[in-house]
Amino acid sequence: xSTAPGDPTDELVTTVFARHCLSRSTLxxxxxxxxxxxxxxxxxSDFRFNALRxxxxxxxxxxxxxxxxxxxxxxxxxxxxxxxxxxxxxxSLTGLGxxxxxxxxxxxxxxxxxxxxxxxxxxxxxxxxxxxxxDPGGEQR
Amino acid sequence: xSTAPGDPTDELVTTVFARHCLSRSTLxxxxxxxxxxxxxxxxxSDFRFNALRxxxxxxxxxxxxxxxxxxxxxxxxxxxxxxxxxxxxxxSLTGLGxxxxxxxxxxxxxxxxxxxxxxxxxxxxxxxxxxxxxDPGGEQR
DNA sequence: CGGCATCCATCTCGATACTG
DNA sequence: CAGTATCGAGATGGATGCCG
Lengths: 141, 141
Fold this sequence. Notes:
The structure is a homodimer. The first copy, chain A, has a single domain (14-127), classed as Arc Repressor Mutant, subunit A (Orthogonal Bundle), CATH 1.10.10. Helices cover 51% and strands 10% of the residues of chain A. Chain A has helices spanning 22-31, 35-44, 49-55, 61-73, 95-113, 115-127, and strands at residues 47-48, 77-82, 88-93. In chain A, α2 crosses α5. Chains A and B meet through α1, α2, β2, α5 and α6 of A and α1, α2, β2, α5 and α6 of B. Chain A binds a DNA duplex through α4.
C-alpha cells in the first residue's frame, strides 16, 4: 500500500519521499541552501574558488567549500587542482551535474518570472487579519 | 561587471545570486529541506495535514506546518479550512505551485534515474586515498 | 590562492507537551 | 485533527590562524 487510495497514479514513482533513499539525500545535497546557487553559477562558466565565492553572494568560505565537496562527492561537480604557487583550483560541472543544473535553471527561471505574483501573494497573505473564514462545507458529522 | 569575463552569456539573467532578491528567497522557501517534498506530494493529490505528514517521511509536525505556511504565503499552496469537529484542512497546489512542482518533479525524476551513477561517484570519492594528483599544467608563473 | 581546523554566536530543527 | 509553545541538540556561519 505504497500509493494513496484514489491516487491518480501519474508516472511519479520515485522514492524521494522515503527517509533513507539515496535520491532523497542527493536531493538535499543539491537543494541545500547553497547547492542550487553553486550549480547555477557553474552552469554559466567554470570558476575558481574565490571567483565562485564572489558570484554566489553571501556564502561563506566554509559553506562554499563544504557545499562543493558534497557536490563533488555526488559526482555533480568536478574539481581540478593545480598545485602551483599560488594554487589554482577550477570547478566545473560533470555531465550529470549539467543535467541537474539545467533543471534548476528552469526552476530559477520560473521563479524569476513569477516575482510579481509572489510579491502580490505575500502582500495579500501578510495583510489578512486572522481567521480568513474559508468554511464552505458545514458537515459537522 | 556583473558577468564574468569570457562568459558565454546564455539567457540566464536571473538575480537569484543576489543576496536580497525575492526570487532567491522564494527559491530557498521552495528548495528548503521540506519544501520540495511537500510540493511533490501535493502534485500527486490534495492532502490533509496528517496524511501529508505521513506521505513525507521524517517531517515533524512543526516543520511541515512551517513549510506549508511559507509556501502558502508565497502563493504556491492553497489551504482550505473546515472548522468542523474534528477540524479538516485541505492543502493543494495553486497554478503557480503546480508549475513549480512540475519542475521539481523533473529534477526528482532525474535524480532517481541517476541513483546508480551517484552511488558509484560516492564510492569512488570515499575510496580515494588523499592527493588525487590532478596536476596537468606546471605553469609556475 | 585555496583551502582546513578551531572557537564561538546564532539559528534551525525535532521531540515533547499543550490548546482549540 | 490540526495545529502552537517550549526547550535542548545540532547545524550554520563568522572570525581567526595555519599550511601548501
